[in-house]
Amino acid sequence: MNPEPVTERVYRVDAGALNVYLIVLPKSLTLIDAGFPGTMATVGAAVRSLGRSPGEIRDVLVTHCHPDHAAGLAEVRQATMAHVWMHPADAKLVRAGQAFRPWKVTPGMHNRIFAWRVIRRSPSSFAPAAVDREVPPGGDIPVAGG
Hints:
Elements: E1 4-5, E2 10-14, E3 19-24, E4 29-32, H1 39-49, E5 57-61, H2 67-70, H3 73-80, E6 83-86, H4 88-96, H5 109-119, E7 133-134
Parallel strand pairs: 4-5, 5-6, 6-7
Antiparallel strand pairs: 1-2, 2-3, 3-4
């Protein structure tokens, strides 16, 4: 599937049960989130459909450690050698291959259903991955102008 433009330089990549995003700059690409294992094949096809190469992905911004955002990170790193950026608390978990912090269901039927159908069925671990740069709250990421 071709990536869908969100803005002139941001594209949504439909990876089945999730979306990842590409920031497309003249000299590099930035991937936002790595998805599940296997997502890199979809990202690679999307990048090539834009006339670019997966090797141009220089940075990966991981929004948080859940498996639909970070479980494919080891695969992405291996394919691209991109620098990985993420919050320090989540970086520690990703380096250890942990998918979640300790959690409990918040009150409400919707939350209980979501926890049962999604979170409890999600993998609790994945292949550990390196994180190059930890970004504290309020920190600046020097990608696409910061």
